[in-house]
């Protein structure tokens, strides 16, 4: 019986797995169809006359942006779930092309509007979409494909911290036997109290009966009364449950905090786990097949390929002799060797004058991936490939080209010598020997400092310059969308960005480029990012989220952290050399500079002169200049007082400046619920979240977290079952903190506007 149940479960999982393959293949086809339509539109728009109306241009860019984001979401899901290794290669190419195109369109909108923040509420309404449809997803393969590397690095970091005595000391836990003893004594005490209460109540009833001379109870009347009360109670419970379900369905009440996982959800989770295992197994088999099939092709088809190439090149020798009367010069390896003989170059097209969308580095990548899909996968019969394993014929086609290229290099050497002999035989009187030399293509190796990357890594950890990032997801940065952005801009009022806008920009400027080498090398390059805003809005949290989502190393070059370390000019240069060398070698990396304004102080306060906060002022611009497109290194500054800095050099370093505001009403409403639930609380009818969101106007996320953690002590959490939370409980802890006033927020806004203009002048 047990065996039969296991077999049934296995068959159910297998059926669900195969069904999901069909679903994700269909999703891929739909995404490719949408992408094909967009590519056609982009090609058509190139032939149109330049646009002069700024609003029309923005509408065009925004519409492209929104549609590419939708395709991005679907392709990311498909790439994560499809198990066929060769399909995943095509999807990955298109996915990275779409990511890069989104960043290019974002850059176009920034250049057009002179603002980092854009609002699409009118376009979303026309397209009948919600703000969730343009949420930038974080590709899961950023972490999945380097889990082993990250775990190994985490172990090394923990070992170094422990050896150097920098590991956080864990709180001493109570022994298990003592916990059991305390719990058992409490249980016995409760039972004894309940037993004594029953005895007391029974004696009390007997005394009252003796005093009043009451006769025995009327059993029929008692049964009728109990039945009446019970029916009323059960009906009331049903009504309350129906009402609660209706309110949850309408979105008026939060869903239950703890729900039992249904059988269908559990089965879906099992299928996803199985799919990940199959995906890894198929990838391994595919990698092995690449080597074995290439070796087989080289052995079987190699001699024929070599002979065919030699015949073609000899034919070229003869044709040139008949046309020009002499033998040609053989192209060198840098020119492509014999491939240059048969290649044809097309003349460059002239560009039209006027405003047009900037040329894209990613359109050719997407077009190539789209053509591969149409040529290979769109109408391919895969009925034989039930388990979605690799296709050997496709590998042969791919590896045949590689084998041809390798053999071509060998043939070129032979044919160069053959051509040389022919020339000597025909033109002996000239006795001309061509000296061939390869142009310098070797990179000068960097001067060795005598230290390995491992030793530098260890030294930076011990000095506190390389730190362990906190595990924080970008989705933990909770906030709502701004629904009035376009309306306010139409009446010349610059809206305050919402927390969702900030989250989107962190994904676009930080996570996507750091997570993908292909995107970082060709997308608009962002080397430094500044997060400006009052205390408690989550600047450091966003820095840690950047590292968590991309698996990046985190270096701390804050003025307070480097004070007294590597003193002197030579010491500073050595420190920066070590930091950026390790950052490049172990990329992606984030260089965090807290209190970034201190590096560019107009005047250093007397209390901070010993700290030398301006140590990095001269070196930082030079280092940023040395960062290339292939270096996935991002400098992130955080500041709560940007107005203390000398803005001209400050803005030369930080080309992207993001203002992080205090949360608005909608964001505070979401935040209160999220933080209360996160800290073990329960949201019930007794807790008026709307009231809390209203009275906390001006307070930041940090203030709300402090208020919630102060109220939700262990003792209060134990009482919550009998005593639900109320809004009044949080007011006292909230009132003890100083809010961010509107005037202070306006100061940030004005300084950001001035910084933007200063950056453009610079």
UniProtKB/TrEMBL annotation:
Q: Which UniProt keywords apply?
A: ATP-binding, Nucleotide-binding
The record's section on PROSITE patterns has: IQ (PS50096)
Q: Where is this region: Disordered?
A: 427-446
The domain of life for this entry's organism is Eukaryota
Question: Which Gene3D superfamilies does UniProt cross-reference here?
Answer: 1.10.8.60, P-loop containing nucleotide triphosphate hydrolases (3.40.50.300)
* Ranges of biased composition (kind: Basic residues): 431-442
| Entries under InterPro entries matching the protein | ATPase_AAA_core, N-DRC_Component, P-loop_NTPase
- ATPase AAA-type core domain: residues covered: 529-645
Query: What molecular function terms (GO) are annotated for this protein?
Result: ATP binding; ATP hydrolysis activity
Q: Does the keyword Nucleotide-binding feature in the UniProt annotation?
A: yes
Q: What is this protein called?
A: IQ motif containing with AAA domain 1
């Amino acid at each position: 019986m047990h065996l039969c149940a296991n077999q049934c479960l296995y068959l159910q999982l297998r059926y669900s797995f195969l069904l999901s393959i069909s679903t994700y293949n269909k999703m891929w086809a739909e995404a490719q169809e949408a992408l094909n339509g967009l590519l056609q539109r982009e090609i058509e728009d190139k032939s149109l006359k330049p646009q002069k109306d700024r609003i029309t241009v923005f509408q065009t860019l925004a519409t492209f942006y929104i549609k590419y984001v939708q395709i991005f979401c679907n392709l990311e899901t498909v790439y994560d779930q499809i198990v066929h290794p060769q399909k995943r290669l095509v999807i990955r190419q298109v996915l990275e092309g779409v990511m890069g195109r989104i960043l290019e369109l974002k850059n176009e909108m920034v250049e057009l509007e002179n603002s980092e923040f854009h609002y699409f509420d009118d376009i979303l309404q026309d397209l009948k979409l919600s703000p969730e449809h343009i949420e930038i997803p974080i590709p899961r393969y950023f972490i999945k494909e380097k889990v082993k590397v990250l775990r190994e690095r985490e172990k090394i970091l923990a070992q170094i911290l422990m050896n150097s005595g920098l590991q956080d000391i864990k709180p001493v836990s109570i022994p298990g036997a003592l916990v059991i003893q305390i719990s058992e004594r409490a249980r016995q005490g409760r039972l004894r109290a309940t037993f004594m209460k029953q005895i007391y109540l029974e004696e009390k009833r007997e005394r009252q009966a003796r005093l009043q001379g009451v006769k025995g109870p009327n059993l029929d009347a008692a049964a009728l009364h109990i039945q009446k009360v019970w029916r009323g109670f059960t009906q009331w419970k049903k009504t309350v449950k129906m009402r609660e379900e209706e309110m949850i369905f309408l979105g008026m009440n939060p869903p239950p905090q703890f729900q039992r996982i249904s059988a269908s959800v559990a089965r879906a989770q099992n299928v996803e786990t199985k799919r990940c295992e199959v995906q890894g197994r198929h990838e391994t088999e595919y990698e092995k097949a690449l080597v074995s099939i290439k070796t087989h092709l080289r052995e079987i088809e190699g001699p024929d390929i070599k002979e065919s190439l030699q015949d073609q090149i000899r034919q070229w020798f003869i044709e040139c002799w008949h046309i020009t009367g002499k033998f040609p010069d053989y192209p060198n390896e840098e020119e492509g060797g014999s491939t240059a003989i048969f290649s044809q170059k097309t003349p460059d097209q002239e560009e039209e004058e006027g405003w047009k969308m900037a040329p894209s580095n990613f359109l050719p990548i997407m077009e190539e991936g789209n053509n591969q899909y149409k040529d290979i996968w769109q109408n391919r019969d895969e009925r034989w490939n039930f388990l979605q394993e690799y296709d050997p014929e496709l590998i042969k086609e791919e590896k045949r080209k590689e084998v041809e290229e390798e053999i071509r290099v060998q043939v070129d050497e032979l044919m160069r010598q053959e051509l040389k002999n022919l020339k000597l035989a025909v033109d002996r009187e000239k006795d001309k020997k061509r000296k061939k030399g390869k142009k310098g293509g070797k990179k000068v190796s960097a001067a060795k400092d005598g230290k390995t990357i491992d030793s530098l890594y260890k030294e930076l950890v011990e000095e506190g310059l390389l730190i362990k990032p906190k595990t924080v997801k970008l989705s933990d940065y909770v906030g709502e969308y701004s629904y009035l952005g376009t309306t306010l801009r139409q009446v010349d009022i610059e809206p305050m960005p919402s927390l969702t806008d900030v989250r989107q920009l962190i994904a676009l400027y930080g996570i996507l480029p750091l997570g993908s080498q292909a995107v970082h090398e060709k997308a608009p390059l962002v080397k430094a990012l500044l997060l400006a805003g009052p205390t408690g809005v989550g600047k450091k949290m966003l820095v840690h989220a950047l590292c968590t989502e991309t698996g990046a190393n985190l270096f701390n070059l804050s003025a307070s952290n480097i004070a007294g370390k590597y003193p002197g000019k030579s010491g500073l240069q050595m420190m920066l050399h070590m930091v950026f060398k390790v950052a490049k070698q172990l990329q992606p990396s984030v260089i965090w500079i807290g209190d970034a304004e201190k590096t560019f102080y107009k005047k250093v306060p007397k209390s901070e002169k010993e700290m030398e906060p301006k140590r990095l002022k001269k070196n930082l611009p030079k280092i940023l200049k040395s960062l290339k497109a292939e270096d996935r290194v991002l400098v992130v500054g955080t500041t709560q007082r940007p107005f203390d800095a000398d803005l001209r050099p400050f803005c030369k370093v930080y080309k992207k400046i993001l203002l992080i505001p205090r949360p608005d009403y909608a964001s505070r409403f979401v935040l209160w619920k999220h933080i209360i639930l996160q800290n073990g609380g329960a949201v019930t009818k007794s807790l008026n979240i709307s009231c809390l969101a209203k009275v906390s106007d001006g307070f930041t996320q940090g203030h709300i977290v402090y208020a919630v953690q102060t109220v939700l002590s262990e003792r209060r959490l134990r009482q919550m079952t009998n005593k639900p939370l109320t809004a009044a409980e949080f007011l006292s802890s909230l009132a003890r903190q100083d809010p961010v006033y509107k005037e202070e927020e306006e100061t940030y806004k004005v300084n950001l506007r001035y910084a933007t203009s200063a950056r453009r002048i610079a």
